[in-house]
Design brief:
This protein is mainly beta and 268 residues long. It has a single domain, classed as Jelly Rolls, CATH 2.60.120.10. Strands 2, 3, 4, 5, 6, 7, 8, 9 and 10 form a nine-stranded antiparallel beta sheet that branches. The chain has a seven-stranded antiparallel beta sheet with strand order 1-19-16-21-13-12-11, with no helix packed on it. The radius of gyration is 19 Å and the shape is globular.
């Protein structure tokens, strides 16, 4: 229900991972992947708010009488570019190379000017640095949230976990539904996704739904970098902002926290 196994790369064309009208474990979002071969064109006019995150390749987006290009060669080493569209916007995507895009959609009464967020506009932070003996140092990229897209029903971002390290840590939770989608370098890597009291072994192309205010820390195996997309659907009257951290574990984020081997039994 919550762990969506992919068993390898997606097919060419559009692959649905989850939809917003599912009877159980409903994230309020459509979430899937579009793969195009060089020279192919994809056309749509969705009645929903849409975010098209470029994973790899070079594309031209034609929308609302405008035309923009974006290119990306590495999920792990380059910031994201993402096209954000209001409902009922006619879109054409032309692939100049083989291309993969993540597409997240949601229903809602919103109206805004379409915007292509360039890689230069994506906010990238190295979180966890200088704390927890560097065991949770990771790169967090935020494409848009309420700070730069207050009109949106979505939050879109990415995380790059360094091998053997944690993210979404210290453990936190929020009532707004979220989806994580994973890729690994090398591709045969794996990690652990903890959602509430359940834990899942995640591999390349897997996804996980995070619902019902469950905590959701993540860790990747030594030797393997772990990338994941994170998308959140705001709740009407309760948009996502700052998550709630589990109180008994927040001490680990203090810069002068005593952590083994510096901590001894008599320090308890």
């Amino acid at each position: 229900m919550y762990h969506l196994k992919a068993n390898g790369p997606f097919r060419w064309g559009y692959t649905t991972v989850t939809t917003e009208d599912e009877a159980q474990a409903n994230t309020m979002m459509d979430f899937g992947f579009l793969r195009l071969k060089a020279g192919e064109t994809y056309e749509e006019q969705s009645p929903k708010e849409s975010a098209l995150l470029l994973m790899t390749g070079k594309v031209t987006f034609a929308y609302d009488g405008k035309e923009s290009q974006a290119e990306r060669n590495s999920l792990f080493h380059e910031n994201a570019a993402c096209l954000h569209l209001p409902p009922n916007t006619h879109l054409e995507v032309t692939a100049h190379t083989d291309v993969e895009l993540n597409i997240t959609r949601t229903s809602g009464d919103v109206d805004f000017e379409p915007k292509l967020y360039s890689a230069q506009e994506t906010r990238s932070e190295e979180r966890g640095k200088g704390t927890m003996q560097e065991t949770s140092t990771r790169i967090v990229r935020t494409v848009f949230d309420k700070t730069n897209a207050p009109y949106s029903n979505l939050v879109v971002g990415e995380v790059v976990n360094f091998p053997g390290k944690w993210s979404s840590y210290s453990p936190h939770h929020h009532p707004q539904p979220e989806i994580y989608h994973y890729r690994f370098l090398p591709k045969n890597g794996f990690g652990i996704s903890i959602v509430g009291d359940e834990s899942y072994i995640v591999t390349d192309h897997d996804s996980v739904k995070i619902l019902d205010d469950r905590v959701h820390p993540q860790v990747t195996a030594p030797g393997y970098a772990m990338y994941y997309i994170w998308v959140i659907r705001h709740i009407d009257g309760n948009p996502y902002g700052v998550p709630t951290f589990v109180p008994e574990h927040t001490w680990v984020m203090e810069k002068d926290a005593l952590i083994f081997p510096d901590r001894r039994q008599d320090d308890e």
